[in-house]
């Protein structure tokens, strides 16, 4: 995970996080609609009109946020499920205004401008507390800012409203940061039993292993990740992440040959992965 507390496993900052699920959802929407994947500062997010609704006129170009005067803004669609959530929570008349605000917050989140995103999302969460997308994004923003307890409140609300497992690893990592290990383990167990996807389960397993390592149980942490210690012909990102954490645990436990073997396995598949080359040099 991206929080500072997760560095107890010496994981590099660029190790992917489950909180990237929001970014991926937006990227999928862009790909589906054929819009550019890279966002520009003067973008205007608009809704796809329903069949019986006239398309609103294109807004005038603006110099806000440093945009160039006279340049036509890009058009992006707020993901339809988010629009539906906002309409259900606040009514159809308010959905466009709220969708524009959540689009602004998403833009700020994508640019790692978490303070700006929080300023937008805090009143939005009060205004539409029943909108899962708002709760999810607000929770992720707070997580990135290291505000674990407020993030938990938002992510637990998202969990209850959506019945989704998408942010379980992030939620568990928040509990871990507060040393609320029992609750972190409970979230992991819920995720493990549901097993919604290999990527999410891998993220959850890494957090659960971190909980055990934090408490001095290196053997338990290694045992939890041992099932990931198998050779795969075409490993995915989740395999590399688990191998890295397992190698780190082996190194901390003094099992240097096992650590070296796993770091070399990662290196064989991706020579630029994480900080593996530095870790191997340190083990010589």
Describe the structure.
This protein has 284 residues and is mainly α. The chain folds into two domains: 1-50 and 74-200, Serine Threonine Protein Phosphatase 5, Tetratricopeptide repeat; 216-284, Serine Threonine Protein Phosphatase 5, Tetratricopeptide repeat, CATH 1.25.40.10. It is 60% helix and 2% strand. The protein has 13 helices and two strands; from the N terminus they run αββαααααααααααα. It has helices spanning 21-33, 80-90, 95-110, 114-127, 132-144, 148-162, 168-177, 181-194, 198-214, 218-225, 237-252, 256-269, 276-283; strands at 44-46, 75-77. It has a two-stranded parallel sheet. α2 packs across α3, α5 (132-144) runs antiparallel to α6 and α12 runs antiparallel to α13. It starts with 20 loop residues before the first helix and ends with a helix. The relative contact order is 0.10. The model is unreliable at 1-18 and 28-76 (pLDDT under 50).
Topology (elements, then pairings):
Blueprint: H1 21-33, E1 44-46, E2 75-77, H2 80-90, H3 95-110, H4 114-127, H5 132-144, H6 148-162, H7 168-177, H8 181-194, H9 198-214, H10 218-225, H11 237-252, H12 256-269, H13 276-283
